[in-house]
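User: Reviewer 2 asked us to show a designed sequence for the structure in our supplementary figure. I'm pasting the C-alpha coordinates here. Could you produce the per-position amino acids so we can include them in the response letter?
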Protein backbone atom coordinates (compact mmCIF):
# COMPACT_ATOMS: atom_id res chain seq x y z
CA UNK A 1 0.00 0.00 0.00
CA UNK A 2 1.05 3.59 -0.41
CA UNK A 3 2.77 5.15 2.55
CA UNK A 4 2.24 8.65 3.78
CA UNK A 5 4.60 10.57 6.02
CA UNK A 6 3.30 13.14 8.44
CA UNK A 7 5.01 16.18 9.92
CA UNK A 8 8.39 16.09 11.62
CA UNK A 9 9.19 18.45 14.48
CA UNK A 10 12.56 18.74 16.22
CA UNK A 11 12.61 20.24 19.72
CA UNK A 12 16.10 21.31 20.81
CA UNK A 13 15.81 21.72 24.57
CA UNK A 14 18.48 22.82 26.98
CA UNK A 15 18.58 19.97 29.48
CA UNK A 16 17.20 16.52 30.20
CA UNK A 17 14.98 18.16 32.81
CA UNK A 18 13.52 20.39 30.08
CA UNK A 19 12.94 17.30 27.93
CA UNK A 20 11.11 15.64 30.84
CA UNK A 21 8.88 18.68 31.33
CA UNK A 22 8.13 19.04 27.62
CA UNK A 23 7.42 15.32 27.25
CA UNK A 24 4.93 15.34 30.13
CA UNK A 25 2.97 18.26 28.68
CA UNK A 26 3.05 16.68 25.20
CA UNK A 27 1.73 13.34 26.48
CA UNK A 28 -0.93 14.95 28.68
CA UNK A 29 -2.15 17.14 25.80
CA UNK A 30 -2.36 14.15 23.45
CA UNK A 31 -4.17 12.15 26.15
CA UNK A 32 -6.82 14.84 26.41
CA UNK A 33 -7.11 15.11 22.61
CA UNK A 34 -7.50 11.40 21.87
CA UNK A 35 -9.80 10.69 24.83
CA UNK A 36 -12.04 13.51 23.68
CA UNK A 37 -12.00 12.20 20.10
CA UNK A 38 -12.44 8.47 20.69
CA UNK A 39 -12.68 7.72 24.40
CA UNK A 40 -9.29 6.09 24.85
CA UNK A 41 -5.55 6.72 24.56
CA UNK A 42 -3.29 3.90 23.35
CA UNK A 43 0.34 4.39 24.37
CA UNK A 44 3.34 2.27 23.40
CA UNK A 45 6.38 2.35 25.71
CA UNK A 46 9.99 1.38 25.17
CA UNK A 47 12.84 0.73 27.58
CA UNK A 48 16.12 2.48 28.27
CA UNK A 49 15.98 5.92 29.84
CA UNK A 50 12.47 6.69 28.58
CA UNK A 51 10.58 5.77 31.75
CA UNK A 52 12.79 8.03 33.86
CA UNK A 53 12.25 10.88 31.39
CA UNK A 54 8.48 10.34 31.79
CA UNK A 55 8.75 11.03 35.53
CA UNK A 56 6.96 14.40 35.40
CA UNK A 57 3.72 12.67 34.35
CA UNK A 58 3.42 11.09 37.79
CA UNK A 59 3.78 14.47 39.53
CA UNK A 60 1.36 17.41 39.82
CA UNK A 61 -0.36 18.74 37.84
CA UNK A 62 -0.49 15.75 35.50
CA UNK A 63 -0.89 12.95 38.03
CA UNK A 64 -4.32 14.29 39.04
CA UNK A 65 -5.47 15.91 35.77
CA UNK A 66 -4.85 13.09 33.28
CA UNK A 67 -7.69 10.58 32.83
CA UNK A 68 -5.59 7.50 33.46
CA UNK A 69 -8.62 5.20 33.34
CA UNK A 70 -8.72 5.65 29.54
CA UNK A 71 -5.07 4.78 28.93
CA UNK A 72 -4.03 1.49 27.31
CA UNK A 73 -0.36 0.49 27.61
CA UNK A 74 1.76 -1.62 25.25
CA UNK A 75 5.46 -2.22 24.65
CA UNK A 76 7.22 -1.62 21.33
CA UNK A 77 9.75 -4.26 22.34
CA UNK A 78 10.43 -6.47 25.30
CA UNK A 79 13.17 -8.71 26.55
CA UNK A 80 11.95 -12.32 26.84
CA UNK A 81 12.69 -12.66 30.55
CA UNK A 82 10.36 -13.02 33.55
CA UNK A 83 8.33 -9.85 34.11
CA UNK A 84 9.97 -9.37 37.51
CA UNK A 85 13.49 -9.61 36.08
CA UNK A 86 15.71 -6.52 36.18
CA UNK A 87 16.09 -6.70 32.37
CA UNK A 88 12.32 -6.54 31.80
CA UNK A 89 10.96 -3.39 30.18
CA UNK A 90 7.67 -4.17 31.94
CA UNK A 91 9.40 -4.07 35.35
CA UNK A 92 11.14 -0.82 34.42
CA UNK A 93 7.82 0.77 33.45
CA UNK A 94 5.98 -0.72 36.41
CA UNK A 95 8.48 0.52 38.97
CA UNK A 96 8.91 4.00 37.53
CA UNK A 97 5.50 4.79 36.05
CA UNK A 98 2.65 2.29 36.08
CA UNK A 99 2.70 1.71 39.86
CA UNK A 100 2.25 5.46 40.40
CA UNK A 101 -0.85 6.12 38.26
CA UNK A 102 -4.27 4.38 38.25
CA UNK A 103 -4.25 2.78 34.80
CA UNK A 104 -6.54 -0.29 34.92
CA UNK A 105 -4.49 -3.48 35.02
CA UNK A 106 -6.73 -4.93 32.29
CA UNK A 107 -5.47 -2.15 29.99
CA UNK A 108 -1.80 -3.05 30.47
CA UNK A 109 -0.50 -5.47 27.85
CA UNK A 110 2.69 -7.14 29.07
CA UNK A 111 4.14 -10.05 27.12
CA UNK A 112 3.50 -13.66 28.10
CA UNK A 113 6.81 -14.33 29.85
CA UNK A 114 6.18 -18.08 29.97
CA UNK A 115 6.60 -18.40 26.20
CA UNK A 116 9.65 -18.81 23.96
CA UNK A 117 10.63 -15.71 21.95
CA UNK A 118 8.73 -17.05 18.95
CA UNK A 119 5.72 -17.95 21.08
CA UNK A 120 5.74 -14.61 22.91
CA UNK A 121 5.80 -12.71 19.60
CA UNK A 122 2.95 -14.80 18.17
CA UNK A 123 0.92 -14.37 21.36
CA UNK A 124 1.42 -10.58 21.42
CA UNK A 125 0.47 -10.28 17.76
CA UNK A 126 -2.69 -12.36 18.35
CA UNK A 127 -3.68 -10.11 21.26
CA UNK A 128 -3.23 -7.00 19.12
CA UNK A 129 -5.43 -8.54 16.44
CA UNK A 130 -8.09 -9.23 19.09
CA UNK A 131 -8.02 -5.55 20.05
CA UNK A 132 -8.49 -4.63 16.40
CA UNK A 133 -11.52 -6.95 16.24
CA UNK A 134 -12.97 -5.41 19.41
CA UNK A 135 -12.43 -1.88 18.01
CA UNK A 136 -9.97 -0.83 20.71
CA UNK A 137 -7.28 -0.47 18.04
CA UNK A 138 -8.25 0.96 14.66
CA UNK A 139 -6.46 -0.01 11.48
CA UNK A 140 -4.53 2.63 9.61
CA UNK A 141 -6.30 3.68 6.42
CA UNK A 142 -2.84 4.18 4.92
CA UNK A 143 -1.00 0.99 5.87
CA UNK A 144 -3.70 -1.45 7.02
CA UNK A 145 -1.75 -2.09 10.23
CA UNK A 146 -2.98 -1.36 13.78
CA UNK A 147 -2.79 2.33 14.57
CA UNK A 148 -1.67 3.39 18.04
CA UNK A 149 -2.17 6.94 19.27
CA UNK A 150 1.29 7.54 20.69
CA UNK A 151 4.53 5.62 20.41
CA UNK A 152 7.36 6.67 22.75
CA UNK A 153 10.72 5.60 21.37
CA UNK A 154 14.35 5.82 22.31
CA UNK A 155 17.42 5.08 20.20
CA UNK A 156 20.73 3.32 20.66
CA UNK A 157 24.17 4.67 19.71
CA UNK A 158 24.04 2.31 16.71
CA UNK A 159 20.75 3.86 15.58
CA UNK A 160 18.53 0.95 16.57
CA UNK A 161 14.94 1.62 17.64
CA UNK A 162 12.75 -0.90 19.45
CA UNK A 163 14.74 -4.13 18.96
CA UNK A 164 15.24 -3.44 15.26
CA UNK A 165 19.02 -3.44 14.94
CA UNK A 166 21.09 -2.29 11.95
CA UNK A 167 22.70 -5.70 11.49
CA UNK A 168 19.59 -7.85 11.84
CA UNK A 169 17.03 -8.67 9.12
CA UNK A 170 14.04 -7.95 11.38
CA UNK A 171 14.19 -4.26 10.44
CA UNK A 172 13.00 -5.29 6.97
CA UNK A 173 9.98 -7.35 8.12
CA UNK A 174 6.89 -6.03 6.30
CA UNK A 175 4.15 -8.61 7.02
CA UNK A 176 4.20 -9.40 10.73
CA UNK A 177 2.99 -7.08 13.47
CA UNK A 178 5.42 -8.49 16.02
CA UNK A 179 8.60 -10.40 15.35
CA UNK A 180 11.22 -12.02 17.57
CA UNK A 181 14.98 -12.03 17.81
CA UNK A 182 17.17 -14.58 19.60
CA UNK A 183 20.57 -13.00 18.91
CA UNK A 184 20.25 -9.35 19.86
CA UNK A 185 23.66 -7.66 19.65
CA UNK A 186 22.73 -5.95 22.91
CA UNK A 187 21.97 -8.26 25.89
CA UNK A 188 19.77 -9.96 26.72
CA UNK A 189 19.65 -11.71 23.32
CA UNK A 190 16.01 -12.99 23.23
CA UNK A 191 13.46 -10.25 22.50
CA UNK A 192 10.21 -9.50 20.73
CA UNK A 193 9.59 -6.28 18.85
CA UNK A 194 7.00 -4.41 16.83
CA UNK A 195 7.87 -4.18 13.16
CA UNK A 196 8.30 -0.93 11.26
CA UNK A 197 4.87 -1.12 9.55
CA UNK A 198 3.26 -1.02 13.03
CA UNK A 199 5.62 1.61 14.41
CA UNK A 200 5.13 3.92 11.43
CA UNK A 201 1.34 3.54 11.49
CA UNK A 202 1.14 5.37 14.82
CA UNK A 203 -0.64 8.71 14.81
CA UNK A 204 2.11 10.33 16.90
CA UNK A 205 5.66 9.23 17.63
CA UNK A 206 8.02 10.82 20.15
CA UNK A 207 11.73 10.11 19.74
CA UNK A 208 13.08 10.91 23.20
CA UNK A 209 16.86 11.29 22.98
CA UNK A 210 19.19 12.64 25.66
CA UNK A 211 22.92 12.40 26.20
CA UNK A 212 26.09 13.11 24.24
CA UNK A 213 26.67 9.45 23.33
CA UNK A 214 23.70 9.70 20.94
CA UNK A 215 24.75 12.98 19.29
CA UNK A 216 26.42 11.39 16.26
CA UNK A 217 23.41 9.20 15.46
CA UNK A 218 21.05 12.18 15.92
CA UNK A 219 23.18 13.96 13.30
CA UNK A 220 22.86 10.92 11.01
CA UNK A 221 19.07 10.94 11.41
CA UNK A 222 18.47 14.68 11.30
CA UNK A 223 21.61 16.42 10.16
CA UNK A 224 24.46 15.99 7.72
CA UNK A 225 26.43 13.05 9.13
CA UNK A 226 26.71 9.84 7.12
CA UNK A 227 26.57 6.38 8.69
CA UNK A 228 30.02 4.75 8.81
CA UNK A 229 29.00 1.80 6.62
CA UNK A 230 26.92 3.91 4.24
CA UNK A 231 23.70 2.09 5.23
CA UNK A 232 21.00 4.27 6.85
CA UNK A 233 20.39 2.99 10.40
CA UNK A 234 16.89 2.04 11.61
CA UNK A 235 16.34 5.42 13.30
CA UNK A 236 16.18 7.02 9.85
CA UNK A 237 13.16 4.88 8.94
CA UNK A 238 10.87 6.16 11.69
CA UNK A 239 7.88 8.21 10.52
CA UNK A 240 4.43 8.83 11.98
CA UNK A 241 1.13 9.21 10.18
CA UNK A 242 0.39 12.53 11.87
CA UNK A 243 3.56 13.84 13.52
CA UNK A 244 7.00 12.62 14.55
CA UNK A 245 8.48 14.77 17.31
CA UNK A 246 12.14 14.57 18.32
CA UNK A 247 12.80 15.62 21.93
CA UNK A 248 16.52 16.42 22.23
CA UNK A 249 18.58 17.84 25.04
CA UNK A 250 21.58 20.03 24.16
CA UNK A 251 24.00 17.11 24.47
CA UNK A 252 22.07 14.93 22.04
CA UNK A 253 21.70 17.86 19.64
CA UNK A 254 25.31 19.04 19.97
CA UNK A 255 26.52 17.76 16.58
CA UNK A 256 23.46 19.19 14.84
CA UNK A 257 24.40 22.61 16.16
CA UNK A 258 28.01 22.34 15.07
CA UNK A 259 27.16 21.00 11.63
CA UNK A 260 24.66 23.81 11.09
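Assistant: Here is a per-position design you can include in the supplement:
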Amino acid sequence: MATQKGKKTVLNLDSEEDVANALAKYAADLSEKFIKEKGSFTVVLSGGTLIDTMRKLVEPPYKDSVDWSKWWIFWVDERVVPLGHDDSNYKLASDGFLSKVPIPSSNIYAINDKESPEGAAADYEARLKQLVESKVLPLSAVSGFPKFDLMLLGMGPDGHVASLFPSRPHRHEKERLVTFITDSPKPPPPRITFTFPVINSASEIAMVITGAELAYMVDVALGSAHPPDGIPPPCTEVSAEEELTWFLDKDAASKLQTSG
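For the response letter, you might also mention the following. The chain has eight helices and nine strands. The first helix runs from residue 16 to 38.
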